[in-house]
Amino acid sequence: MKNIVLFGPPGAGKGTQSEKLIEKYKLIHLSTGDILRAERKAGTPLGKKANEYIDKGILVPDEVVIGMVENKINEFPDCPGFIFDGFPRTTAQGEALDTMLNEKGSPITMMIALEVDEDELTKRLLLRGQTSGREDDKNEDTIRKRFKVYNEETLPLKEFYNLQGKYFGVNGMNSIEQVFEDICKLLD
Ligand code: AMP
Questions:
Q1: What domains, with CATH codes, occur in the chain?
Q2: What's the pTM?
């Protein structure tokens, strides 16, 4: 079983690479951002709760997201593995994920981090904002807030996985195809 954390700041290409990876390795794509947006669209209580956080560019509380991920993992007891995209985003989420997966005897295989500089990320997000309909991609203040949250709350996970010998970086400035090739080399 392969359980991969695809890591990186907003706009690094996690969604794009996840789509290619699930096709090749038949893994389940678990994107907490996608789940939250779907809940919001459906107008569920969870979606309503997440709304204010997403629009401000801040993180939805850990217990909400952790419960959501646990439900999703339990939906696929026999799958070949998961690609976690946008999760974990805090050390508490990383610890909870380790606990969940260790109980199932299938821990995280590796964390693959897409490394992209902030100028390029801002360009990509503003461009995506023109077509994705995502409000949090249209507003430069929200984008800056998301980088700040990433640097302060999410980046410590690099060390968390590094200490487990599971951190691998990939240059995310390269073309989509090149990045995909580099990730596949690590996975194979
Ligand atoms: P994303 O699509 O991954 O960029 O996520 C969009 C927004 O959803 C984030 O800015 C957060 O408000 C929320 N979100 C997504 N994943 C998480 C998570 N793992 N923990 C907390 N909030 C999250």
A1: 2-187 (3.40.50.300)
A2: 0.96
